[in-house]
Specification:
Distance between the termini: 84 Å
Order of helices and strands: HEEEHEEHEE
Largest sheet: 5 strands, antiparallel
CATH topology of the largest domain: Alpha-Beta Plaits
Radius of gyration: 26 Å
Shape: extended
CATH architecture of the largest domain: 2-Layer Sandwich
Structural class: alpha+beta
Amino acid sequence: MSYNIDFGIPRYVRSKRRRRRRIKRHKKKYRMKKDFPTGFKLPVRATVYVPSTIRGTKYVGKKRFKARIGKVQKDLTKKFGGSTLSRGEGTYTFQHKKRGKRQIAHEKVGMLTLFTTPKKWQGNRKFMRKYLKKKRKEWGQESIGLEFEKPSSPHALYFIEKRKKK
């Protein structure tokens, strides 16, 4: 360790002090204003869960899974102006037809999140319900998840299911 004769303080200590002062000046210069954010607001958030399986636990394949995600992403972007894709892995229980008991299934999912205005959501709500019912049937699913949140209602996960006969 080298000492500076002028100050009697090790150089590494002085450099830390300089670094702290530099950071403080930088923070002061680029401090966020109190009225941030200044842009427009999209308070409604919806997430569509795109499954990678068909009829329980049968994996559809990488190509078909990507095609599913691409199709849904394209349709949501046309209706709502954009969407964000994130991938994950999920589990759920289902009724096994041959064995007659509930089992746990693991699957990859694509989560497409969109943000929109309440007015735009109200205008496309019926489309969204019909679209997800159609996709549920097309993909051979018991249900499809739709996570939904708006300022006036709590965060919730809805399942678009086949209507049960009475």
